[in-house]
Design a protein that fits this description.
2 domains; 2 helices; about 180 residues; about 20% helix
């Protein structure tokens, strides 16, 4: 309603005022877009099934191809909570990660995770900045940092781990189905 009034006012005014009105309308549109994006929640772009491939770089330098499937399920109407299921396999390695994370109003992430093939689990903390996520997960014997960038239907994921003696780095590219 306010935008319609501003547009009517702008049409009936002089050229300088019309230019100012165009700028004002653009600012209103940008503010509305930011409100829609904020209301959508930081996990909105993740929802759905994803799959892809990548490389494991193990301690000692050995590399191996890996195949992964991910499912992101948004919880609640605010899209500030997500369930994540990530299953990856190579010729000699397999893991199943299940987690639930929540982002607060400043996009700080907290949550819990479990890895069923090794029967371990722990907590996770991190943040969201636009389409970039960083989450640090840990337990008493293992810690890893997950970096994720989502652009449309493509997602790049890197996992750097410390401890546990198995994996040093995982790099993945996933695509939404």
């Amino acid at each position: 309603m306010m935008i319609r009034f501003a547009f009517s006012y702008c049409r009936s005014s002089g050229r300088a005022v019309a230019t100012a009105c165009v700028v004002l309308l653009a600012l209103w549109a940008c503010a509305d877009l930011r409100q829609v994006q904020a209301a959508a929640g930081p996990f909105a772009g993740l929802n759905g099934r994803w799959s892809g491939t990548g490389i494991i770089r193990q301690q000692g330098g050995k590399t191996e191809r890996i195949r992964c499937n991910a499912n992101y399920r948004l919880l609640g109407s605010t899209q500030h909570e997500v369930d994540i299921q990530l299953s990856c396999s190579s010729d000699s390695y397999h893991f199943n990660l299940v987690s639930q994370f929540r982002a607060d109003e400043s996009n700080q992430i907290t949550g819990r995770w479990t890895e069923s093939s090794r029967n371990i689990g722990g907590t996770g903390i991190g943040y969201v900045r636009g389409n970039r996520f960083q989450i640090h997960i840990e337990t008493s014997a293992f810690a890893a940092t997950l970096h994720m960038v989502t652009r449309g239907s493509r997602q790049s994921v890197t996992i750097d781990s410390q401890g546990g003696g198995e994996i040093a780095n995982v790099s993945l590219t996933l695509h939404r189905h």
